[in-house]
């Protein structure tokens, strides 16, 4: 009895340990999920309107582990705080009015085509002035939703600007550029959005790290 | 222990003859059925000349596979039915260690099949490269290739863009092609390796940085086709898809004119058209 | 087992101190942190540059950490003791640590039978981790667009599954079964290099552990091929892939070397080449491929490591390098690798069929020629992986021909196997069922391979789920099925206990049906336009994918049936197996179970091959041998 009992105990322990390890293992793959941000919807349900306020920072800063030196998008949540989320839940067939404050300097495009804004309702306004095309050495980032045809280059903070923001949180009193534009969400679906500027310093072709991690330079528009 | 009993060396039934007849009859029935009904139903369909060639290749492949498949499966079924050990006593089979004649026939038949397949594949390939990427020095040029319309496909993380050198080098984010035209696609990449897969057109070509990968495709009538990236290229590989169109000549002319006027402002920033582009890599810690 | 001399054993805590797996893990972790620390100091400039304190991208630290970690692990395991002793002038010895007890399974042991069992358990562990990844992939693919795992993590899952299976399963037959049975079959008392034999196992385990840690470094996005320049672009998780595959390469290379040396030099008197069991021929062919292919892998990974750390540009076009270089070198290794996985399957099938058909192996020389032909031809076909890449389009007819030529020697294996069954007295035991399934699986796998070898047909199938289904039919259907055949066949000899036959049959039928139900629909999915490694797919393919996912979960469950059978039969039921339960004529079954430490009291003399079923003289395989440990 004692021998069999010991064996059963051993196997049960093994199964329990394996179960815990498998749990940790699966959880390890799930942690990359950033929580979705759901902005408040205005207007009628027939023609909903959403205001999104976004900022881009050169580094997320020491408080936002695990990658304090990574470049990132932040979104202003419904209580007015900047949040590191790039997954936005938006209504279908809605008008999205976006304001982007860019605190980052110029990086430059590899394909100059992406200096031409596309897919918008009306023009893209940079500091209030309409933009036709941005020269390829200028953009800091782009906000692009290829499946919706949306592409918006972001103008950079000048190299010699004073009071630049090193890392988040960045205040609007610091040097920045303001982009405003309007686009429409299509039918329901999961639309990825990304940056096309090779802005990940230190990575091959500037396209590793934050450029390939959801929550930094990539995200989803969950259109519901 | 006494050695087990042994089955007699010469069987009472002509198993070999029986099996061969069954195989020939079954293959004779199955192969035409497969060739007529299954083969032409195999994608990618008949939406371009190259796609049609692939359907024909698939038909030949699946038809040749049929008798092989029937042979092995029928053999196994026959063996299971006829040669299973019955009863609990251990009985040995006849000690046959080989048969030079069967080996020779097998070698000749398999070699002939294989050589035929390779020859047939080469013949098909010679027509135009069958829609596969051929690199900068395309070995398989279709008739009239000098008059082909050049279109460049630029892969980048994570979108394909397209340039039309014959229309002033205009670059656009969506692919539209004229109908009934021989097209020479120049597939290249600005960063990682992508693969341009236009499913209904029967086109697949890897986009390598610094390489001009040429594909010939001859379009047929108007068509909407799916474009996918088919080589793992990073985070958004699974989202690197788009829809392309084949349209009539006049629609195409109108479309390209609209693109030229919309992207006119960016034209002066685009590099001059080239078969490949090598943007400087920004190295790590740089 | 009989009570031998009763030793006075020291208490448990005392036995845990010394060179063993526990010490090895402690030394390994210590070595990792030492390397990491050194790397940070070498890269001091970049620490200052990055400023805010996070040093995410310090590949040098990770590589040095892994290297010193592996070194610490091996020293802790005791691999430094013998070289050190020799340096100090102690006499040479061939064997060490062959004491009885469970402890020998957790350390350096030069008994080939212990290493075989270590391999079986170690490979089983990583096989289950790789399988778990597959299950998670199928969870994600239940829906065409909704994300369970974030896009980047999904790529890591895919890469982990592929890399783990390709790396670890390269030794699935050679590790456990060739290490255990080749010395027995050739009448030897040990492998040619017993210490290297143990080293190959522990390198593989260190590698597997390192690959599992990739998740702490952000994973890697490249899949098992690790194509450049994506490789160079990736997070430090890529370093785990590089170190893992390099360790697997070293392990494979040494394993192959050891097998070749053993089979060539240590055969007992009378065991001529034409009497060698076909299993040993299969092992020999595989070992040649391992020995010659793995160095190419190690070299290309070394170049990738230099690109990532020392900023060389082997694979960067704008620096004068070429991604084609990586693709070529990788597939020069990669295609033989595919046959490293497939050939042991051929060998197991041809070895087991005569036993259960009660007939001699039909066409022994043709079977050998088939294996050697595959070994040779597998070097000449690698560019069929690059048919769409734009490389050397004028060489395409050649690679199409050479690829299709491989079906000729593969056909020899089929002919010999099928003709061995012809007019036999077939017994449908569990190992036999797994071998027979091989015919079906490899037939489908081989015929689908013809589509991939033909360039026009390859245009659609290349890089799609069709090719994925193809290599699962050949590798899972060809290797994993025979791996289980070998387990069910040889476990009674390795442990002395029977596995439950009824559970074995349930395992077989569930696995066989679920396997086909999983992978056959994927041929259609590939033809209908589903690309490999895509986290999304067209919405109209959801039914196929859901069907496949559910089948895959059943396939996963069948492994649990096996696991239950294994644990229950060996730990609880413990029904003693007869010495020769299958009435095999092969020499290992004439020895007592489990086999005594020194195998043979007297080296046997061979007078024939072990396939004399039904022959009048039925010469015993070992007329002059009496196994160690007395009569059976």
What Rg of chain B is obtained from the alpha carbons, in whole angstroms? 28 Å
- Report the biggest beta sheet of chain B as strand number plus sense, adding barrel if it closes: 5 strands, mixed
CATH topological fold name of the largest domain in chain B: Immunoglobulin-like
Q: What class, by secondary structure content of chain C?
A: mainly alpha
Give the % helix of chain B.
25-40%
Largest sheet of chain C: none
Task: Please tally the β strands of chain C and state the result.
Answer: 0
Number of domains of chain B: 2
The H-and-E topology of chain C, N to C, reads as HHHHHHHHHHHHHHHHHHHHH
Going by helix content, strand content and strand pairing, the class of chain B is alpha/beta
- The dominant shape of chain B is elongated
Amount of beta strand of chain C: under 5%
Mean of residue pLDDT values of chain B:
91
Notes on the protein architecture:
The complex is a heterotrimer of chains A (224), B (286) and C (632). Chain A is an alpha+beta fold and 224 residues long. Chain A is built from one helix and 13 strands. Chain A has one helix spanning 2-30, and strands at residues 41-42, 49-57, 72-76, 82-83, 87-90, 95-102, 124-126, 129-131, 141-145, 150-154, 177-184, 189-194, 218-223. In chain A, strands 1, 2, 3, 4, 6, 7, 8 and 11 form an eight-stranded mixed β-sheet that branches. Chain A starts with a helix and ends with a strand. With 286 residues, chain B is of the alpha/beta class. Chain B has two domains: 14-82 and 101-128; 145-267, Immunoglobulin-like (Sandwich), CATH 2.60.40. Mean pLDDT of chain B is 91; it is low at 282-286. Chain C has helices at residues 12-16, 21-42, 44-50, 59-77, 81-87, 112-140, 151-168, 174-185, 194-212, 230-233, 237-265, 278-309, 323-357, 364-377, 396-405, 407-421, 430-453, 455-461, 465-495, 501-527, 542-573. The model of chain C is unreliable at 47-55 and 623-632 (pLDDT under 50). The chains are: A alpha+beta (224), B alpha/beta (286), C mainly alpha (632). The A-C interface holds A 4, 7, 11, 22, 25-26, 28-30, 32-34, 59, 61-62, 65-70, 167, 189-190, 192, 202-205, 207-209, 212-214, 218, 220 and C 50-54, 56-57, 129, 132, 136, 145-153, 156-157, 215, 218, 221, 229, 232-235, 316, 567, 571-572.
């Amino acid at each position: 009895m004692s021998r069999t009992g010991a064996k059963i105990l051993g196997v049960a322990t093994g199964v329990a340990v394996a179960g815990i390890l498998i749990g940790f293992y699966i959880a390890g793959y799930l942690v990359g999920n950033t929580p979705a941000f759901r902005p408040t919807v205005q207007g009628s349900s027939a023609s909903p309107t959403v205001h999104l306020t976004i900022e881009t920072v050169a580094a997320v800063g020491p408080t936002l582990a695990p990658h304090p030196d990574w470049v990132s998008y932040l979104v202003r949540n419904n209580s007015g705080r900047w949040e590191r989320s790039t997954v936005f839940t938006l209504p279908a067939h809605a008008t999205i009015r976006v304001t982007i404050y860019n605190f980052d300097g110029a990086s430059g495009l590899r394909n100059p085509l992406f200096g031409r804004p596309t897919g918008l309702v009306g023009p893209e306004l940079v500091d209030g002035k309409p933009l036709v095309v941005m020269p390829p050495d200028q953009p800091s980032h782009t906000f692009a939703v290829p499946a919706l045809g949306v592409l918006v280059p972001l103008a950079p903070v000048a190299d010699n600007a004073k009071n630049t923001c090193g890392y988040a949180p960045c205040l609007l009193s610091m040097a920045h550029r303001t982009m405003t534009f309007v686009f429409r969400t299509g039918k329901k679906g999961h639309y990825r959005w990304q940056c096309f500027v090779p802005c990940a310093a230190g990575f091959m072709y500037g396209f590793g790290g934050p450029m390939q991690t959801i929550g930094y330079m990539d995200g989803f528009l969950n259109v519901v | 222990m006494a050695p087990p009993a042994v089955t007699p060396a010469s069987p009472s039934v002509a198993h070999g003859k029986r099996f061969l007849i069954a195989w020939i009859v079954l293959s004779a029935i199955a192969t035409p059925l497969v060739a007529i009904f299954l083969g032409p139903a195999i994608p990618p369909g008949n939406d371009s000349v190259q796609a049609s060639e692939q359907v024909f290749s698939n038909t030949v492949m699946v038809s040749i596979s049929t008798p092989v498949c029937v042979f092995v499966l029928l053999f196994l079924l026959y063996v299971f039915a006829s040669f299973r050990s019955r009863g609990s006593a251990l009985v040995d089979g006849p000690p046959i260690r080989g048969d030079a004649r069967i080996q020779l026939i097998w070698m000749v038949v398999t070699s002939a099949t294989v050589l035929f397949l390779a020859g047939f594949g080469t013949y098909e390939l010679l027509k135009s490269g069958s829609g596969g990427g051929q690199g900068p020095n395309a070995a398989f040029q279709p008739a009239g290739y000098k008059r082909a319309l050049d279109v460049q496909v630029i892969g980048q993380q994570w979108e394909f863009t397209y340039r039309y050198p014959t229309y002033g080098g205009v670059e656009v984010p969506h692919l539209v092609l004229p109908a009934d035209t021989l097209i020479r696609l120049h597939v290249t990449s600005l960063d990682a390796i992508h693969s341009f897969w236009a499913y209904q057109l029967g086109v697949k070509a890897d986009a390598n940085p610094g390489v001009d990968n040429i594909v010939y495709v001859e379009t047929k009538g108007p068509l909407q086709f799916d474009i996918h990236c088919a080589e793992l290229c990073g985070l958004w590989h699974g989202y690197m898809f788009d829809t392309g169109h084949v349209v009539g000549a006049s629609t195409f002319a109108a479309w390209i004119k609209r693109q030229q006027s919309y992207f006119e402002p960016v034209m002066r920033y685009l590099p001059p058209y080239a078969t490949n582009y090598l943007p400087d890599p920004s190295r790590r810690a740089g | 087992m009989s009570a031998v001399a009763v030793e006075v054993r020291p208490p448990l805590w005392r036995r845990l101190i010394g060179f063993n797996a526990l010490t090895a893990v402690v030394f390994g972790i210590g070595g990792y942190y030492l390397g990491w620390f050194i790397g940070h100091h070498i890269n001091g400039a970049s620490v200052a540059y990055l400023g805010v304190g996070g040093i995410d991208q310090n590949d040098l630290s990770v590589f040095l950490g892994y290297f010193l970690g592996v070194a610490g692990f091996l020293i802790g395991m005791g691999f430094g003791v013998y070289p050190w002793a020799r340096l100090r002038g102690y006499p040479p010895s061939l064997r060490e640590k062959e004491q009885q007890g469970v402890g020998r399974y957790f350390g350096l042991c030069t008994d080939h039978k212990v290493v075989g069992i270590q391999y079986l358990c170690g490979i089983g562990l990583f096989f289950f981790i790789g399988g778990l990844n597959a299950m998670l992939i199928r969870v994600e693919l239940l829906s065409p667009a909704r994300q369970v795992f974030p896009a980047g993590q999904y790529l890591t899952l895919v890469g982990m599954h592929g890399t783990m299976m390709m790396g670890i399963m390269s030794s699935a037959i050679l590790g456990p079964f060739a290490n255990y049975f080749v010395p027995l079959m050739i009448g030897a008392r040990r492998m040619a290099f017993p210490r290297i034999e143990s080293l190959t196992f522990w390198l593989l385990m260190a590698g597997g552990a390192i690959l599992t840690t990739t998740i702490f470094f952000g994973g890697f996005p490249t899949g098992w091929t690790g194509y450049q320049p994506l490789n160079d672009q990736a997070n430090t998780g890529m370093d785990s892939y590089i170190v893992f595959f390099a360790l697997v390469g070293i392990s494979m290379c040494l394993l192959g070397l050891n097998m070749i040396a053993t089979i060539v030099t240590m055969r007992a008197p009378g065991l001529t080449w034409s009497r060698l069991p076909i299993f040993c021929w299969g092992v020999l062919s595989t070992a040649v491929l391992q020995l010659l292919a793995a160095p190419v892998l190690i070299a290309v990974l070394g170049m990738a490591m230099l690109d990532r750390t020392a900023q060389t540009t082997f694979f960067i076009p704008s620096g004068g390098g070429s991604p084609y270089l990586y693709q070529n070198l990788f597939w020069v290794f990669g295609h033989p690798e595919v046959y490293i996985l497939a050939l042991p399957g051929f060998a197991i099938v041809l070895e087991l069929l005569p036993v259960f058909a009660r007939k001699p192996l039909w066409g022994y020389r043709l079977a050998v020629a088939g294996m050697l032909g595959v070994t040779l031809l597998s070097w000449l076909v690698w560019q069929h992986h690059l048919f769409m890449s734009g490389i050397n389009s004028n060489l395409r007819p050649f690679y199409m021909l050479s690829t299709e030529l491989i079906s000729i020697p593969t056909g020899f294996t089929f002919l010999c196997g099928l003709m061995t069954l012809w007019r036999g007295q077939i017994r449908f035991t569990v190992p036999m069922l797994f071998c027979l399934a091989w015919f079906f699986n490899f037939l489908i796998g081989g015929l689908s391979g013809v589509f991939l070898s033909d360039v026009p047909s390859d245009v659609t199938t290349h890089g799609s789920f069709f090719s994925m289904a193809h290599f699962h039919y050949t590798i899972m259907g060809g290797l994993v099925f025979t791996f289980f055949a070998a387990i069910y066949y040889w476990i009674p000899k390795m442990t002395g206990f029977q596995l439950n036959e009824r559970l074995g049959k349930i395992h077989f039928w569930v696995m066989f049906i679920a396997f086909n139900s999983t992978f056959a629909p994927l041929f259609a999915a590939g033809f209908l336009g589903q690309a490999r490694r895509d986290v999304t797919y067209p919405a109209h393919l959801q039914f196929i994918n859901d069907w496949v996912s559910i089948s895959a979960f059943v396939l996963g469950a069948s492994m649990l049936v096996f696991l239950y059978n294994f644990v229950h039969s060996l730990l609880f039921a413990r029904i003693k197996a007869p010495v020769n339960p299958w009435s095999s004529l092969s020499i290992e079954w004439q020895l007592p179970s489990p086999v005594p430490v020194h195998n043979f009291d007297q080296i046997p003399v061979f007078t024939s091959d072990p396939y004399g079923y039904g022959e009048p003289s039925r010469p015993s395989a070992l007329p002059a041998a009496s196994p160690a440990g007395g009569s059976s």
